[in-house]
Structures
1.
Amino acid sequence: MSAQQGKERFERWRDLIGRTRAAETTSEHVDDFTAQVRRLDLGPLVLLGSSFPSARFRRTKRLIQRSDQELYHLTLLTSGVHGLRRGRDQAETFGAGDLALIDSSTPHDVHLSGEQDPGGGRSEVAAVGLDLPASLLPVPPHRLRDLLGRRLSGREGTGALLAEFLLGLDRQGAGLRPAEAGRLGAVVVDLVAALVAGELDAECALPEDARQRTLVEGVRVFIRGNLHDPGLTPPVVAAAHNISVSHLHRLFARHFPGETVAGFIRAQRMRKAHRELADPGLRDLTIRAVGVRCGMPNPSDFGRAFKAAHGLTPREHRLLADAKATA
């Protein structure tokens, strides 16, 4: 790649990032710049997944005076190091799995650098960024002042739930319809609000609907992470979240009309089985072993449930997937 091509790539990438994160953007790798970027519109929110060489973003007073979209910027770093200086505050350093929340109305200086590649290749940063209008977050701006620029964990509690949700949106966003994306954007706002409120010990300040949607999304993530457990039932799910079974059923009825908790567990198990039986990397697993991984150790029960869900037996589905892979 020529230096001119690298510069053109950098300019295109900077333009796309700058549509929601206007800043003076520079990089030491302009001449041989390569990057990946994925944009997903979630109603009024924008999700950007990107990997790139080291880069610096300076949001100055002049830029703010020229134009301020009044956005909150949330960044989830998945690889690399994130250095942030906000206003005159002391610099903060973030690593993979950390969340950083800043606003577009305060000067900041962000330096993202990749970790050293053990293989000798060029190090890169990988991150998922979320841009949301400040007006959507149901927490007064003055309450957030001390939270902005601080390290927030994406490895536990609500932070982990939010991080997993953002990564899932980045992976699956291309297949979402606009209406679906808009609804998921509302869930993202609720999760961000729950994270912020938890950090501020202000859960009571959140609207009831926001608390419920955060809870029910946490339930769904819990179910997906425990599909291997044959004992995963509505009472077990309810106990894990310190709520009654009846309250759990009411949550699903309100936020996912027509879908029951048991039905969601069953559908997720069949989806997991469908995916794993077609995965060439899992070809050495027996069909029974796949059933066990999906929480259904009885082969007969697994076979009947799979055929009812997909119209084929597990063996027929695997053979069909193998034939497509070799065609």
Note: The chain has two domains: 3-206, 215-327.
2.
Amino acid sequence: MRSSRALAVSATMAAALALASCDAGGAPSDDVPTDTVIDQFGTVTATEGPNGEQPTPASDLELTEEQIAELENGGYRAAIAWHELSSWSNAIQAGIEDELDRLGVEIVSTTDAKFDAATQANQVQTALSLKPDVILGQAVDPVTANAVYQDAVDQNVKLVFADQAPDDYSYGKEYQSVLTDDLFQIGQRAGNAMCDAVPDGGEIAVLYYDADFHVTNFRDASFLSTIAAECPDVKIVAKEGFSDPNKAEEIANPLLTRHPDLAGVYTSWAVPAQGVLSALKNAGNSTTKIVTVDLDDTIAADMAADGNVAAIVADEAYDYGRAMATAAALAILEEPAPEFAVSDSVSITKDNVADGYEAWNQEVPSAVLDASKQ
């Protein structure tokens, strides 16, 4: 999950990063780069947007009775354009659907770009032919999204994005709101979960999304900061970037060969975590622990069965979706929605897996329940 920019790191932050790298990763080595997209932030302590925006709690978004009545009688239409359909985006989609249905706003299309920017460009054009008043969803890539959504901007279609807006788009002009997670909180909870899962002195690896995407970069940076602060004896012995989350297993296999004694692996979200889990299973490795972000049935089932997965951090995706729908409704009515709103998250282990599914407004799947009984 979740504009692109090169952050200027002050000398103070750079020094803090160097200290954190030594504390959390042992002596610097070729296996542990210190200039990745997640190192650019230095030590982080609170969530901010890609341009320094300060967060507004998503729970603050509200509509008046008069606004609801106007929406119910307005015949408004919405299109939803996802970067990819996953367990996470489906949970947000459910929240959007329920809230827009309550408000009388018709959803005219939902699309899955399968993480391909060209596909999303075609899908946005098709959606525009259906005359929506607003488009919600997530752009595949904030750099190319500028062109992808320009026709929507020219036609005065309102835009509400998950995670971040296209590069060079201005709040209140080209787009009306961005909603995402409390990025620092998610990374901090993932870091704390890793500290709990691995022994002092244990070696861990980080598989991070190797693209300039603020949401994932920032929460990964928060993970690094938390490891350095909360369990400095844990050693980060490798950072490996991926551009295609579906190819994480190809990265994990040689990583595990180079570092057969890894105590843990952190991944930016659940799809690459599936690849790491597959690599561990194929290697007969039952001891290396995984901590990741976003609820996923395969990952949750392994965790419930006391497998490699130690913990998952997930946002309250259903309420996130309802908040996106509320922001879209405000945009339709030409009312201001927050520039950068954030939703809360939950730390999930085997002991409280039901809490994670509740946050996504879902029943615990039978496969996860069955795994917990093994």
Note: The mean pLDDT is 91.
